[in-house]
Amino acid sequence: MSVKIYIDGQEGTTGLKILERFEGRNDIELLRISEEKRKDSQERARLINMSDYTFLCLPDAAAREAVSFVDNDHVRIIDASTAHRTNPGWAYGFPELSAQHREKIRVSDRVAVPGCYASGFASIVYPLVSNGIIPDDFPVFAYATSGYSGAGKKAIAVYEGEDKPFEFNSPRQYALSQQHKHLPEMKAVSGLKYTPMFNPIICDYFSGMVVSVPIQTRLLEKNVTAEAVHEMYMKHYEGANMVEVMPLMSEEEQKSFFLASNTLSGQNKLQVFVFGNDEQILLCSRLDNLGKGASGAAVQCLNIMMGIDETTGLV
To answer: Residue 124: which CATH number?
Structure first.
């Protein structure tokens, strides 16, 4: 028996990628909205309440409006906007963080899909805090490189257009005021007392990202080695289908290694790396901002909510 699914915002980047991941599945029935009624609130409300599961791939205000349309108790919402990610009434859609996260996703009617940068950040920092490697008041700094697909349709058009500005050929730092929209989520989900500093960098390639968190171990209250941190991640993510802790490299191996940001483009998994040495540990998370950082995570949550193999349509 198939379930009925509606994607509110099906023409956006995330919505289209979710549709791609549904190809070949016979356990779902997609409810489609006609192009001329795409912004018609009554038609959207009708389709939402016809569905068993609705994905919200919308700006925040529109996502909040869409939730208000629900008047049918059986409708379960998976929100891929920023609107509900720090709402304690919503399950946070990163099942690998803990057994509690996974169970809440399974039973919840409201699931908030993590942001792409926040996914990379939380995959590194949540285990550090929850396993007592760093205290919750540790001064955390993160930086990240990302493809331009996460910037939305207008930015994609500029990057791929014939009149692309000269500066767009180079990596560009942004959110310099330390007000990036993912920061509240990064703080809350990772269990930090204070907002981390975050330096995102958009680059001239389509998709994929690396989020990096450097740790100066002299700032920690107890001695911590790179090997111990790596062992902690291995244990934390043991048995995970979509998160892979990569082998620990020797310092000699690291000298000739380059960590590309687009390696997982088009894929749905996330990789965790431990680099550096016992004095300066560099932690990195690599993922596709459109995969495990958006549509892949959304479909994984759907699968868990449906009670089927979480990798269905994803590997």
So the answer is: 3.30.360.10
The boundaries of the domain holding residue 108 are 3-113+293-306
Catalytic residues: 116
Phi then psi for residue 165, to 5 deg, are -60, 150
Max Cα-Cα span within the chain: 62
Cβ–Cβ under 8 Å, residues 129 and 192: yes
State pLDDT tens for residues 42-81: 999 999 999 999 999 999 999 999 999 999 899 999 999 9
Residues in Cβ contact with 277 at an 8 Å cutoff, skipping those fewer than 6 apart: 226, 251
Radius of gyration of the chain (CA): 20
209 and 256 assigned to the same domain: yes
Same domain, 151 and 90: no
Residue 250 in any domain: the answer is: yes
Q: What is the CATH number of the domain that holds 84?
A: 3.40.50.720
Backbone φ and ψ for 309, nearest 5 degrees, come out as: -55, 125
The secondary structure of residue 245, as a DSSP letter, is E
144 and 16 assigned to the same domain? no
40: tokens are 């018609």
Distances (CA, A) of 83 to 18, 86, 122, 172, 185: 19, 8, 18, 26, 10
220-263: pLDDT as tens digits: 988 999 999 999 999 999 999 999 999 999 999 999 999 999 99
Tell whether 178 and 41 lie within a shared domain.
no
263 in the same domain as 137: yes
Decide if 165 contacts 157 (C-beta within 8 A). Answer: no
* HSE-CB of 302 using CA atoms within 13 angstroms: 30
Residue 58 lies in a domain: yes
Structure tokens belonging to residue 257: 């290694």
Tokens 């479909």 map to which residue? 299
